[in-house]
Specification:
Helix content is 19%, strand content 44%. By secondary structure, the chain is an alpha+beta fold. The protein has two domains: 100 residues, Immunoglobulin-like, CATH 2.60.40; 122 residues, C8orf32 fold.
Length: 264
């Protein structure tokens, strides 16, 4: 399937910025589940400083702003051919060693709730256990926007029983690691049924299964990723794979607007 994606992010300020530095992870790579047919990244109101691949092989760009601009616009667009591999990405790990994805992070540190989920997933074949874990998370954490932030931990989202795809992914990663699986966070896009326009990108999790490699699990939708998914970046958690992050200096108030379209 060929998917067409446009993702526009606009920052508006009520005063000039003294200085800002943004890190962009918005460029997909061709791999086992997708082939990038075309992709472009356009930036207004900022200048690109450097482009590199980080430790997780995510294409990363640093852009800076200094002085007059009151507005920064970052827009990516392109077309990606996707395959349905039943969620299997394979053994490719990039520069980061596999053991790195066994270690907890502040966002994925397990507590009593996550440890209970890991036990409830039970015994048996690896894939069966991981699919049971995904079903447990979907049952216990309802998809509810506005209930969490980018700083909400896996344990907090599980305790309040509500969150979004970021939270589902963090809970899965945390519990999968507690079960002995290397696990990682994936950011990307999903073509949704009945709607083209979206207000946020998507996220899911992957666990490393012997003989299969990385296998994806989207607890928000209760499925493994198929041909409707486009992967952009991976990491230990959201902080490692977030599409745009950065710092700014000055007292200017910021307004953010995001518009995304994903269609066949």
């Amino acid at each position: 399937m060929r998917l067409k994606i446009v993702h526009r992010t606009e920052y508006a300020y009520d005063a000039p910025l003294h200085y800002a530095l943004q890190r962009l992870r918005l460029t997909p790579a061709s791999g086992p589940t997708q082939t990038v047919h075309s992709w472009s990244l356009d930036i207004e109101g900022a200048r690109e400083e450097v482009c590199f691949r980080d430790q997780f092989e995510n294409e990363t760009r640093l852009v800076s702003v200094e002085g007059a601009p009151h507005r920064i616009v970052v827009q990516v667009s392109g077309e990606v051919d996707t395959l349905d591999t039943a969620g299997v990405f394979g053994t490719r790990c990039g520069f980061a060693p596999l053991w790195l994805f066994c270690h907890e992070t502040p966002l994925t540190r397990p507590g009593k709730g996550v440890e209970e989920l890991a036990v409830m997933a039970g015994d048996g074949p690896e894939l069966d256990r991981l699919h049971r874990l995904m079903a447990l998370i979907r049952d216990r954490v309802s998809y509810t926007t506005g209930t969490t932030t980018t700083h909400t931990t896996a344990e907090e989202a599980l305790a309040q029983g509500a969150g979004v795809c970021q939270d589902h992914s963090h809970v899965f990663v945390s519990a999968a690691r507690a079960m002995g699986f290397p696990a990682r966070y994936v950011s990307g896009y999903l073509m949704m049924e009945g709607t083209v326009e979206q207000t946020a990108s998507h996220a899911w999790a992957e666990a490393f299964v012997p003989k299969l490699g990385w296998v994806g699990f989207d607890a928000s939708n209760g499925i493994s990723p198929d041909q409707r998914y486009v992967r952009i970046a991976v990491g230990r958690d959201y902080q490692d794979a977030m599409p745009i992050s950065g710092i700014r200096l000055g007292q200017a108030e910021e307004r953010l607007a995001v518009a995304i379209t994903v269609e066949q």
